[in-house]
Design brief:
44% helix; ten-stranded mixed β-sheet; Spore Coat Polysaccharide Biosynthesis Protein SpsA, Chain A; 13 helices; alpha/beta; 316 residues; single chain
């Protein structure tokens, strides 16, 4: 078993060697590393060239965005198991070893992942809030329905530095969507999980996501959730998937997406935009406490909105 590790690179000169070295230091050593330089204008390429290892391949292309870079890496990959790592994140040394175990134990799966930890901009470490897994779940298979149910009430189960996928599975969904300014990975994971099962190790946090570097150095770092529905490609793609597959968990996930957007618009005092998002939230949400809370809040006088929002979420 050999892995193709794909690292998209754009202006990450401070971090790219850390990412590459975290792969080279894996306890499982059967891999190639494909660095797709997406038109970097800093010294990122020079930093990659300082690493002398025949398993590292550098591919240069004009700036086309992170999806195009990942898709190029998939096209160039020699092996059937493809793992993704962002240029400013890193893996713990047993990440690939744990993925190997998942592949051998759960051959019916096409997607594999471990848990991860988040390093905040102030240096604090926190662990994802993942709710809704079966009681005492440590490792195992997660179905499409369960995946979306969990994702609708949690931090992301999958992120772009934790996922390994079988090459033909990601090719079947067309890889990553090109031209999407943000959330392209959410679309990709959703498409994968409507068609495949996930083998997931919940107990081991073997990828490290650096929130501060992803925000300040990513060329697609705008808050893609702040866009109105007419420009919200993520929402539209999720709704297309629900229309095709009719998964109840996916319906909950779409409601969760619109709830997040309502919160953002409310905090930004964009009350009319929040009301427009509620129209879609209403279509997919269960008629529970949260539904009636937002119905009340959106129809309250402005001074009540401001008071509730300040107490719940604080100021932007």
């Amino acid at each position: 078993m050999v892995f193709s590790v794909i690292i998209p690179l754009y202006n990450k000169e401070e971090y790219i060697k850390r990412a590459i070295n975290s792969v080279l230091n894996q306890t499982f050593q059967q891999f190639e590393i494909i660095i797709v330089n997406d038109g970097s204008t800093d010294r990122s390429v020079e930093k990659v060239k300082e690493i002398k290892d025949s398993r590292v391949r550098l591919i240069n292309q004009e700036n086309q965005g992170v999806s195009a870079a990942r898709n190029r890496g998939i096209k160039e990959a020699k092996y059937d198991f493809i793992a993704f790592l962002d240029a400013d994140d890193e893996w713990e040394k047993d990440y690939l070893k744990t993925i190997v175990t998942l592949i051998k134990k759960y051959p019916e799966c096409k997607v594999f992942a471990t848990n991860y930890k988040i390093v905040e901009s102030n240096g604090n470490i926190r662990y994802p809030r993942i709710n809704g897994l079966p009681k005492n779940f440590k490792e195992g298979v997660i179905s499409s329905e369960t995946y979306f149910e969990v994702a609708s009430k949690s931090d992301p189960i999958l992120c772009s530095s934790t996922v390994c996928v079988v090459k033909n599975a990601i090719n079947k969904i067309g890889g990553f969507p090109v031209g999407v300014k943000g959330g392209e990975d959410l679309i990709t994971w959703a498409k994968l999980m409507t068609k495949n099962k996930l083998a997931f190790n919940y107990k081991k946090h073997l990828a490290i996501f650096y929130r501060n570097t992803n925000i300040k150095n990513d060329n697609n770092s705008k808050n893609y959730r702040i866009v109105s529905y007419d420009k919200d490609i993520v929402a539209k793609e999720l709704m297309k998937l629900y229309k095709e597959y009719q998964l109840e968990g996916l319906k909950q996930y779409i409601a969760y997406w619109f709830k997040i957007k309502i919160n953002i618009f409310l905090r930004a005092k964009e009350y009319e935009l929040a009301k427009k998002e509620f129209i879609f939230f209403k279509k997919y949400s269960k008629k529970n406490f949260k539904f009636f809370f937002y119905l009340f809040l959106l129809n309250s006088p402005v001074f009540i909105k401001k008071l509730i929002i300040k107490n719940l979420w604080g100021e932007l």
